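call fold target=ATP-dependent 6-phosphofructokinase
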Amino acid sequence: MAGISSPETANVTINKDNNNSGAVGEEVAAEGLSFSAVTLRKLPHLTDYLPKSDLQARPNPLERNEFFHPTEGFYILSSDVILRQIVYDLSGTFPSTFPRLAYHRAGPRRDIYFDPANVRVAIVTCGGLCPGMNTVIRELVVGLWELYGVREIYGVVSGYRGFYTSEPKQLSPKMVHGWHKRGGTVLETSRGGFDLKKIVDGIQQRGFNQVYIIGGDGTMRGAVEIFEEVRRRKLNVSVTGIPKTVDNDVGIIDRSFGFQTAVEMAQQAINAARVEAESAVNGIGLVKLMGRSTGHIALYATLSSRDVDCCLIPENDFFLEGKGGLFEFLERRLRDNGHAVIVVAEGAGQDLIPRTDAQSEEKDESGNPVFLDVGGWLKSELKKWWARDHPNELFTVKYIDPTYMIRAVPANATDNLYCTLLAHSAIHGVMAGYTGFVSGPINGSYAYIPLDEVAKEKNKVNTRDHKWAWVRSVTSQPDFIRT
Ligand SMILES: Nc1ncnc2c1ncn2[C@@H]1O[C@H](COP(=O)(O)OP(=O)(O)OP(=O)(O)O)[C@@H](O)[C@H]1O
Ligand SMILES: O=P(O)(O)OC[C@H]1O[C@](O)(CO)[C@@H](O)[C@@H]1O
Ligand SMILES: [Mg+2]
């Protein structure tokens, strides 16, 4: 059989009408090379565990929607896939050892598995803030209402704990109308409070049958557990995750929503740091940006600003004193330019900062380690260094910590559009009966990815790739390798 196989079953029988299994893979001849086997990630579907009698496929109401005129190609088939990897080296061992992982393409299906009149939706936001959370909520509400005619839509208040602690808020398009212009989350969010039994009991008691979970990596791990418990209880409930994280630390998808807005906001802090540094004798502008365990915001803000002399991220260890260290580099930069700008991600240098045992063990309510302020520590180390080595020369460090200013803002236009597409993709997938999945762009096209896969994969800065080399070429900063 030529075609696409799912990882669970090496040779899936191809069936164009089946919403839920492998898809058709034509042999594609390319310059004499044959792409014969593509591995299609199996997407959980309600039909996997519920009896057929409980589920009735029905035509998509978009068919009758006066604003849509579904034509050939409008509906996505189970044979429409997005390839995970699109860059290949055609030399060497091609094609036998080349992984060609594929995901189902996101979008409306011809048949749906929910009667819109009986749909009861729960939307929840968890974890830290991120630009665009309100846009996703707004677009879920408006999309469910306008595209599918769903009327029972509820916001679960204050994160996971809201499933068992408070009454959900009923939402309508009129109510959420201007939410995309507001930062934060109108539904409120929180960390911790994940009690699986109580959450799933809450879902059952309130009769929710579609659950949209907006959150970061921790939230996605929680969503996997909810999905598995729902499946274990054989509930007719579809669970989907919409990845949110200003840190951009969620894997597989191209980027997370709100990230671009945060990078844009960071420019203001970097500009201010440059102005302060330039206007002082031996001036250093120091900016701390978010990024708990990943330095994406710091990296992108550095590349887009071009005013940064040194970018410090958690993925790349650094040191202060000695040959090849930060002080030696800054000494040179101050001598050559008279000023320098440093961008440091909050998770960088944590192993260098002295701390008490209590500080080492401190965790937030979700169990994430609480970091010490790398910016404050660096400022004080810089001052000590200068006072020791250049006691008679002027020196200024201006430390700017825009932490919450870069995330507690409304999404920019690009992120707003992105949030809309994410929300609508999620709705189409859920209405089609898929569950335990995440929607997101892979190589620019929207795909459905199994939740557990997203929950497992972390997106870290690859300090071996061209982007990091580009940062280094822009800043000429050292590699921080001790010799
Ligand atoms: N491994 C896990 N299993 C179940 N629930 C989890 C897990 N990790 C975190 N959670 C729950 O998910 C919610 C959000 O987690 P967390 O505070 O880590 O934020 P996040 O989703 O990672 O977002 P961000 O880090 O971008 O702010 C919390 O309610 C937390 O209890
Ligand atoms: O202070 P809070 O709300 O716990 O959030 C801080 C954390 O949230 C994030 O914005 C997202 O994970 C991190 O960059 C940061 O460490
Ligand atoms: Mg997180």
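return ok
The first strand starts at residue 3 and ends at 5. The domain at 259-406 is CATH 3.40.50.460 (Rossmann fold).
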